[in-house]
From TrEMBL:
<protein>
    <recommendedName>
        <fullName>Chaperone protein DnaJ</fullName>
    </recommendedName>
</protein>
<feature type="zinc finger region" description="CR-type">
    <location>
        <begin position="170"/>
        <end position="248"/>
    </location>
</feature>
<feature type="binding site">
    <location>
        <position position="239"/>
    </location>
    <ligand>
        <name>Zn(2+) 1</name>
    </ligand>
</feature>
<feature type="repeat" description="CXXCXGXG motif">
    <location>
        <begin position="222"/>
        <end position="229"/>
    </location>
</feature>
<feature type="binding site">
    <location>
        <position position="222"/>
    </location>
    <ligand>
        <name>Zn(2+) 2</name>
    </ligand>
</feature>
<feature type="repeat" description="CXXCXGXG motif">
    <location>
        <begin position="183"/>
        <end position="190"/>
    </location>
</feature>
<keyword id="KW-0863">Zinc-finger</keyword>
<keyword id="KW-0479">Metal-binding</keyword>
<dbReference type="InterPro" id="IPR036869">
    <property type="entry name" value="J_dom_sf"/>
</dbReference>
<keyword id="KW-0677">Repeat</keyword>
<keyword id="KW-0143">Chaperone</keyword>
<dbReference type="Pfam" id="PF01556">
    <property type="entry name" value="DnaJ_C"/>
</dbReference>
<dbReference type="Pfam" id="PF00684">
    <property type="entry name" value="DnaJ_CXXCXGXG"/>
</dbReference>
<comment type="similarity">
    <text>Belongs to the DnaJ family.</text>
</comment>
<keyword id="KW-0346">Stress response</keyword>
<comment type="function">
    <text>Participates actively in the response to hyperosmotic and heat shock by preventing the aggregation of stress-denatured proteins and by disaggregating proteins, also in an autonomous, DnaK-independent fashion. Unfolded proteins bind initially to DnaJ; upon interaction with the DnaJ-bound protein, DnaK hydrolyzes its bound ATP, resulting in the formation of a stable complex. GrpE releases ADP from DnaK; ATP binding to DnaK triggers the release of the substrate protein, thus completing the reaction cycle.</text>
</comment>
<feature type="binding site">
    <location>
        <position position="183"/>
    </location>
    <ligand>
        <name>Zn(2+) 1</name>
    </ligand>
</feature>
Amino acid sequence: MSEREWIEKDFYKELGVSSDASADEIKKAYRKLARDLHPDANPGDTAAEERFKAVSEANAVLSDAAKRKEYDEARRLFASGGFGRGGYRPGAEYSTGGGGFGGGEFNIGDLFGGGTSYTSTGDGGIGDIFGGLFGGGRGGGTRAGTSTRPQRGSDVEAETTLPFREAATGVTVPLRLTSPASCITCHGSGAKPGTSPRVCPRCNGSGIVSRNQGAFGFSEPCDDCRGTGSIIDDPCTDCHGTGVQNRTRNLTVRIPKGVSDGQRIRLAGQGEAGLRGAPSGDLYVTVHVKADKVFGRNGDDLTVTVPVSYGELVLGTTVSVPTLEGRVGVKIPAGTVDGRILRVRGRGVPKRSGGAGDLLVTVKVAVPQDLDETATEALQTYLSAEKASGFDPRAGWAGA
């Protein structure tokens, strides 16, 4: 794919967001589309599969702040006519005056910061824009003096939902992914088994060719090898020379202990396969944690609320409290007030660095809704004795 074809793609339209959408809006739009269009949800639907590829490609650029900035700048230059109607043309005249770039009125000094000549070894301008978007990517362009390397595979995102306790203690989960992966027939080389790619004779394997145009020097992707640096005379019939196939893979992912809701786990090299044996991208798994009926979490501390009676708070007692690893006895001192938090060291959420947070136990009085005659009489006797002792629960409250 040429640089022009790449830039003329409207990635914002693919995701259904505006060009000024925030990173969160882009992320939410991609996740929704990816779920709706995933091949597993649309078996045999080639149209959905193509849309899935398109939105994945759009997300790969727009979710990366640096790539998005370069993409926006390049599209702005195309839209303003900086490259002429037909986009960048290798044979066009380039000047510091009114000609060039498709015959439009354009001052190259404005583009390159006042310079009078351009080479791809300079800083800024078109070279940097294309270098960022295409230097290691699909367009194949690089700066002069450097070699073009095979394109690294894109990163892949997946999601999994875990119960609270499994997320806290760590668990191994299976994942089923459908994404571009290394071709099993040619092992990613792109060449038919028994053959090998050969070095491109025109660019000597660099993937770029240089030429001079008056006072300017230009470097362009090699047309013969399309910027890859190698030529495949006998392509693999299964992947058509790309070295990549769409495959469904079953992975086992180890979720570390103490993972929190929304945390991303990175698996290096488990993303999309790179073209012609290039390194694979990474897999990022976003973990969602379900709420638990008993436990809560505050950082690395585990929280739990224990119901107790009024008498237990007044007289003191020891209660059995659940933890992630069984139950422990927690002493409630005599005279403990309702809502007090008791801390049990080292019984909280395990830390990846070792050890664990604390268990925070909140005591909450449970009020009986129905008392028999004996209990009612006993309580009335107690209240009379309490009043006689001089205790007033509302003393000093609200100006009393």
